[in-house]
Amino acid sequence: MAISRPIAFRIFGPENEFDMAFPSGFEHITREQEQLAPFTWFRIGGAAQFWVEPTSIEELAAVVRAAAAEGLMIRVLGGGSNLLVRDEGVSGVVLHLTAAAFAKIEVNKKRIIAGGGAKLGHVVSTAVREGLAGLEQLVGIPGTLGGALRSNAGTHGGDIGQWTTSATVMTRSGEILTRSKDELRFGYRASSLDELVILEATLDLEMASSAMLTKQMQQTWILKKAQLPSADQATSCIFKNPGGVSAASLIEEAGMHSARVGNAEVSDRNAAYIVAQPGCTSREVIELIELIRKTVADRTGVDLETAIEIW
Ligand SMILES: Cc1cc2nc3c(=O)[nH]c(=O)nc-3n(C[C@H](O)[C@H](O)[C@H](O)COP(=O)(O)OP(=O)(O)OC[C@H]3O[C@@H](n4cnc5c(N)ncnc54)[C@H](O)[C@@H]3O)c2cc1C
């Protein structure tokens, strides 16, 4: 086997400016200083120091162990629909699980077993096509199954967690574990699945007519689309709905529905979303988030919590 040359890299931050070597052997799946903007819905933000796309679970485990041994921070990027990457970018490793090994979807009677890297939309459409009810409410939620499980993605009609009966995860030390139903906890935009990687999940659904589910899915999609910023906008949903009230209505009540900072502005379709206009920076989005939170707290007494993760 050819001996590969270690990749040299620079640790970010003025106090950490020295070169280190990434463990060799992963050059074919690693890119340095990969811009993350194209992989997120906001389409802004800096680069990942190491962008790694493993092709198998074994390769993923080897990368995780090697990066952990070097003390590198490791993150997983799914569909990038619930993320804002800072302008400075992120140090360490960002894993992207798009290989077939992470994206399979299998159906067995009322059960779907799908990879954490599978697109949520594909899991939903597979269920509907196979006449399995439960997931049709989730149509239009972007991202991957792994990302959906991490935040227990859902709508008023239900969430992914209620159908999830087990999950296979990889820990930060590269160990693979199975979390059974009684170990799983799902709440509003929260789950107990906080290990490094969600590799796979089992969803137990209910038999129904595929034609009826297709109709329901189409109706849900039409309603959802009308409440979202337009598809060509760089955007993300920023705030959680606090205790039964919609974040959008609180933002409107506080008079912040047309607020903007630089090129970041509140969406005119749904005030819980921020739109990044051309030239927008992550700093502007973060400043707008803080401005909205402060104004809403001052004027309504409610502390808005962010749904989006900031890297
Ligand atoms: C237009 C739009 C509409 C939306 N509508 C809804 C909605 O109706 N309901 C709702 O709940 N959300 C909604 N969201 C938010 C978002 O789509 C969900 O949170 C989605 O489930 C995130 O999945 P992702 O793969 O894009 O995750 P990412 O944004 O890539 O990552 C989010 C978090 O999940 C982690 N993660 C991703 N994949 C994995 C994995 N395999 N293993 C471990 N961790 C992982 C990441 O590390 C990060 O911590 C919407 C967002 C947009 C932009």
UniProtKB/TrEMBL annotation:
It is found in: Cytoplasm. It holds the Pfam family FAD_binding_4. The active site is at residues 189, 237. It catalyses: UDP-N-acetyl-alpha-D-muramate + NADP(+) = UDP-N-acetyl-3-O-(1-carboxyvinyl)-alpha-D-glucosamine + NADPH + H(+). It comes from the Bacteria. Keywords: Cell cycle, Cell division, Cell shape, Cell wall biogenesis/degradation, Cytoplasm, FAD, Flavoprotein, NADP, Oxidoreductase, Peptidoglycan synthesis. It comes from Pirellula staleyi (strain ATCC 27377 / DSM 6068 / ICPB 4128) (Pirella staleyi). Pathway: Cell wall biogenesis; peptidoglycan biosynthesis. The gene is murB. One of its GO terms (cellular component) is cytosol. SUPFAM superfamilies: FAD-binding/transporter-associated domain-like (SSF56176), Uridine diphospho-N-Acetylenolpyruvylglucosamine reductase, MurB, C-terminal domain (SSF56194). This is UDP-N-acetylenolpyruvoylglucosamine reductase. GO terms for biological process: cell division; cell wall organization; peptidoglycan biosynthetic process; regulation of cell shape. Residues 44-233 form the FAD-binding PCMH-type domain. One of its GO terms (molecular function) is UDP-N-acetylmuramate dehydrogenase activity. PROSITE patterns: FAD_PCMH. Cell wall formation.
